[in-house]
Design brief:
Layout (H helix, E strand, L loop, with lengths): L5 H23 L4 E4 L2 E4 L7 H8 L5 H10 L5 E5 L5 H10 L4 E6 L5 H10 L5 E5 L1 E3 L7 E7 L15 E11 H8 L3 E4 L5 H4 L10 E5 L7 H13 L2 E3 L8 E6 L4
Parallel strand pairs: 3-4, 3-9, 4-5, 6-8, 9-10
Antiparallel strand pairs: 1-2, 7-8, 10-12, 11-12
Helix pairs in contact: 1-2, 3-4
């Protein structure tokens, strides 16, 4: 019998210790916050789950997106975020832009927004605006769209919830994407919308965007649809960055001339 390498044993022991620690937090309710990337993230809030807590405690929650925003965002940038979720990426993006920058974030799930706004205010960030809406193509006549809620906020989507218990369907107001782009003039796009990128990205006028960090969802989209997202970004002059961020997160950058 071949024994596993020691690094793998240590990794599994560490993971087991983290799971046990989170179990104790939840059982005895002796923690109100968990520290992550310099932020005090509240444990008892909408959208928080044991799985997310374990990722936060391991310091690996959404790390590919975090690496991407650290590479993409410059002080003073205007950042458009699609899918604010827990607001952790939103807050880190706002800190990266500094006080002269601005983050405009869209979230379809109304259950998440009050706690996310409270969290952002509690960590002392003021250069963020969260809107309850979804972006649609410029020629869309829809004033609302059906949004499928899931027992896990990260699985809720315009495309329907998968892998988790459905919590029903709600109507969410829409905003036309290129009207928003023209008005807000973002420098950077961050997008994690559970497969709905196939609708928004090909319709996006991204000529003024310098960089984009997009989480693709091969569990929801076909290979041809993912290729369509890549092609749409390339048509806008944003090429896939060769740097691997990890997972299914891709960074696109505009070539600069000296």
């Amino acid at each position: 019998m071949t024994l596993p390498p020691m690094w793998k044993v240590r990794r599994e022991l560490h993971r087991a210790w983290i799971r046990s620690k989170v179990d104790l937090w939840l059982r005895f309710k002796n923690r109100t916050h968990v520290e992550f990337q310099g932020l005090q993230v509240p444990i008892n809030r909408s959208g928080m789950s044991k799985g997310v807590l374990i990722q936060l405690a391991r310091n690996d929650y959404e790390m590919p997106e975090i690496r991407g925003l650290q590479l993409a965002i410059r002080p003073g940038d205007r950042v458009l975020e699609l899918g604010s979720g827990l607001g952790i990426i939103t807050t880190l993006a706002a800190k990266a832009t500094g006080p002269s920058g601005l983050v405009l974030s869209f979230e379809a799930n109304p259950e998440m927004i009050p706690d996310t706004r409270d969290f952002i205010a509690q960590v002392g960030v003021s250069n963020v605006e969260i809107r309850h809406a979804v972006l649609v193509s410029q020629d869309s006549e829809d004033t609302t769209r059906d949004f499928h809620l899931s027992s896990s906020f990260s699985s809720s989507s315009l495309l329907g919830s998968t892998g988790h218990r459905s919590k029903g369907v709600i109507s969410v107001p829409t905003q036309r994407v290129n009207d928003l782009i023209a008005d807000f003039r973002p420098d950077v796009l961050i997008c994690d919308i559970e497969g709905a990128e196939i609708e928004v990205i090909p319709a996006l006028d991204a000529r003024g965007i310098r960089a984009a960090v997009i989480e693709l969802h091969p569990d929801r989209l076909s290979g041809d649809q993912i290729a369509e997202v890549h092609a749409a970004m390339a048509r806008q002059g944003l090429d896939q960055d060769p740097v691997s961020l990890g997972g299914t997160v891709v960074m696109y950058s505009r070539a600069t001339t000296a």
